[in-house]
Design brief:
The protein is of the alpha+beta class. The chain has two domains: 78 residues, no CATH class; 73 residues, Regulator of K+ conductance, C-terminal domain (Alpha-Beta Plaits, 2-Layer Sandwich). 28% of the residues lie in helices and 35% in strands. The chain contains five helices and nine strands; from the N terminus they run E-E-E-E-E-H-H-E-H-H-E-E-E-H. The strands form two sheets. The chain has a five-stranded antiparallel β-sheet. A hairpin with a 4-residue loop joins strand 3 and strand 4. The longest helix has 12 residues. It is elongated, with a radius of gyration of 18 Å. 13% of the residues are buried. The model has no long low-confidence stretch (mean pLDDT 83).
């Protein structure tokens, strides 16, 4: 079965597949940990017949009832393919760390070897922000590197 993945900047990721019954099913995995389960109209795949918002614990219970997930399996395989690579979403605090300062001020790449690959501000995604990018409270920063580098980068980002 093919599962289609669509990034939703500022929100999370939507996964979709067509069930054997012909129904088009989607799940939005939000950055806040909640999930939106959606059932789309068979005649118009852009029209949604209904959604259910699931908390993290609701999602875990549903996964147990359904017997696990192939997405988890795929992520485990990917983790083994890129040994040592870690990705972390860091939310900028109201004050402290690099809040109100530029990426260059933190010297993250130089001191930790981690990279800031994107910043999400509200509903806007900023892929590949440059050194002059000013970080603001509430920004979500995507950091990539080794586990140790990400821990160091997070300490610099949030203070």
């Amino acid at each position: 079965m093919d599962i289609y993945e669509t990034p939703l900047p500022g929100i999370g990721v939507r996964y979709e597949f067509q069930a054997d019954s012909g129904d088009h099913v989607g799940v939005v995995v939000r950055r806040d940990g909640k999930r939106d389960f959606a059932l789309y109209d068979r005649e118009d795949p852009d029209a949604c017949r209904g959604t259910v918002e699931l908390s993290e614990s609701d999602s875990a219970a549903l996964v147990d009832l359904l017997g696990g997930t192939s997405i988890t399996s795929r992520l485990d395989k990917l983790r083994h393919q890129i040994d040592g690579l870690a990705i972390e979403w860091v939310t900028m605090p109201a004050s402290g760390g690099l809040t109100g300062r530029t990426i260059a001020d933190g010297r993250i790449r130089t001191t930790t070897s981690a990279s800031i690959v994107a910043v999400i501000r509200g509903e806007d995604g900023n892929p590949g922000p440059g050194p002059d990018f000013l970080l603001q409270a509430g920004d979500t920063v995507l950091v990539m590197g080794s586990d140790a580098a990400i821990r160091q980068a997070t300490a610099i980002l949030v203070g």
